[in-house]
């Protein structure tokens, strides 16, 4: 119920309001009226009929459901084509350098480029164009006839009027010629009677003559500067007026779509009708029949040939593409016939051979064949060995046996020469003897080497110096000097841990003795040593 935003109601008032709404829905009470005096449908839900609080509606209304925003300034007008606004007498700064108009620049100028533009000559200044901007609505932007000038169809009417005048003039000239012949031949009665019949033929209604002249409706003419779109393409003349228009064949709104601008209807307007009774089956029927299908196949062939590297283009060189497609079909037919002949030569042609025996046709014979439960032949027919898919009994490199006929030490080979190299040349029995002699000699050499080998000598331990090299034989370390070097090393390490114990004016001795190196090695901490934490 369309109600205004009112104050709080008591329980009794609320109950009465509900009863009134039920009575209005049942038709027992008159419907509620809005501000304009129009009845409000009582079946409208409350969430739709209740006005928002911020509108401060004092009376019930449905205006809040209507479009309350003002529409933009939409217009249905169009550009004033060819209109000019101001004609200047001299060149102005910022104008087009070619024609002198202020509404565009030199890059967007559509006039013929002058040898010397208006900027330098100051002559023939073009007038400024009329620049307009429109704000179109949704339908206006998509209206294909928006801005169409009906006066542009005037030349079409004039062309048909001129054709009618020429036809009438021609008929009158023919009638005058017939009358002159009739006056000259009045003496002959037979000719007079014939002329009367001719006069009756000439007095045919002009409407019928026009209809006879319209029989060339199927003639294809070139389209020259028509509203249909440019000077390219073709268009047919108007249909015969006795024919039913294609958009009148089926008046159902859900039938095939008809485009009035292009006069095309792609789908069949009467799909359920007998095809023999129909004279129009849709424009798509023409696209898959006749030369249209062949042209489509030619296009597809040109695309595939271009993808495979051929320099062919259907639009750029149509003759070349057509010739290539023609040669492709000829070669395809030759290849197909050649393949067919090869198969017939190999397997024969059952259609041209003699009639097969009755036993083979019916699958019956007098031979008895016994099978086991697994389907294997027990007796009655010779068992055929299964053949491999590889070539059999093919000998290469002068071998007399096939590869894999000999096995030794987990290797396959040839039985004729006992070689395990597949591409080897056959050496026969001599090769077998030479291989055996070589193996015997190898075994004898191995045995002799094992007998002559002695036990490995013990490696002498070498003393290494502290710096990693071998210790010279004449190197002798004094134990007293080594003890003093160990004390010096301990003092140096204590000074490193606590620099406060270092004395001033310390003198360094750069000479390193073997005892010093040995003390450094003994005191050095090895990071990989698991007992390094217990050294100090």
Short description:
With 536 residues, the chain is mostly helical. The protein is built from 14 helices and 6 strands.
Features:
extended, mainly alpha, two-stranded antiparallel sheet, 536 residues, 14 helices, 6 strands, two-stranded antiparallel ribbon
Topology as H/E string?
A: HHHHHHHEEHHHHEEEEHHH
Main beta-sheet annotation? 2 strands, antiparallel
Q: Tell me the strand order in the biggest sheet.
A: 1-2
Number of strands: 6
Helix content: 25-40%
- Class of secondary structure makeup: mainly alpha
Total DSSP helices: 14
The average pLDDT value, as a whole number, equals 80
Question: How large is the share of residues in beta strands?
Answer: under 5%
> Runs with pLDDT <50, length 5+?
203-218, 227-233, 464-468
Q: Roughly how many Å is the radius of gyration? A: 57 Å
Write up what this structure looks like.
Belongs to the SLU7 family. Involved in pre-mRNA splicing. The chain has 536 residues and is mainly alpha-helical. The chain is built from 14 helices and six strands. The strands form three sheets. A two-stranded antiparallel sheet has the order 1-2. Strands 3-4 form a two-stranded antiparallel ribbon. A hairpin with a 2-residue loop joins β5 and β6. The longest helix is centred in the N-terminal third of the chain and has 31 residues. It is extended. About 5% of the residues have low confidence.
